[in-house]
# Entry
Amino acid sequence: MTKIAFIGLGNMGGGMCANLVSTGHEVTAFDLDAAAVAKAAEAGAKGALSLAEAVGDAEIVVSMLPAGRHVLSVYFDEGGVCDAAAQDCVFIDCSTISVDDARTAIARAAEKGFLMVDAPVSGGVAAASAGTLTFMVGGEADAFDRAKPI
# Structure
């Protein structure tokens, strides 16, 4: 069982989070929408009130956010994921963002000593709920190897 923080519980993230719970992972979920966090808790995740609470003891952080600016903010702004995550935590961003934003995120994570992969998905909301998404993953080999089981 892996301790996972899941950030972003919208149409795609909610189903992805629920599937990680159903496969036996210990998932702590966070979103700015309290109703989305409550729904994740109903599916078996632990709800978090902040990013810091969500990622504090996570081995993996998975994010599914609307745009690159959200990804960069969530991970790198003061009080973000990088400020609260354990140094051996691996980041998996599943958001559909620009190549430049993805490369920036991975480079900034590396500067802070973290492994990160860009892992956008294909399949839509139905596949997110069914657990049948296709992941297209980019990043360094060691980051990919650590992220692959998730």
